[in-house]
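TL;DR need structure tokens for one chain.
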Amino acid sequence: MLQANLKIIAELKSFLVQVANNQEWISLFRNTETDFTRRRKLSFENLSLLIVRLCKKTLSVDIEKFFEEMNASLPCTVSAFSLQRVKLNPSFFYSWNMVLWLNFYSEYGSCVKRWRGFRILGCDGSNISLVNKPDLQEYFGGQSNQNGSFVVAKTFYCYDDSG
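>> reply
TL;DR here they are.
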């Protein structure tokens, strides 16, 4: 089982490195042609890794710890992270998740628990607030109150307890 997990992690890393080192692939996952063209502390690869491992503490603490573990002399600021994050197209995470999903079922497909032949998935949804930009407001819609309006999106989570 450990070997299978290590293989899945290696495939995820390989996909990230392939994308980060190929301008044609990066162009698929950036929002404008000028995004990720200069060398920055938060390169495409570092930004992706940082986003995946966030939400443990405050953003500033998570950023500082990430750069400490990367042996970087100085971390980036929270505002620099926010500016870089806007450049990354969310379709990257969809594609990266597909790499995870395909490799998981390649490695563990025969071990997946079933109930009467079906996989059992636990699902839940929620609302999340997004940056209040006109294009996001138009796409997702929003809500308003006496203090103003804000953009709201729906999320859907699906948990596969195959182990």
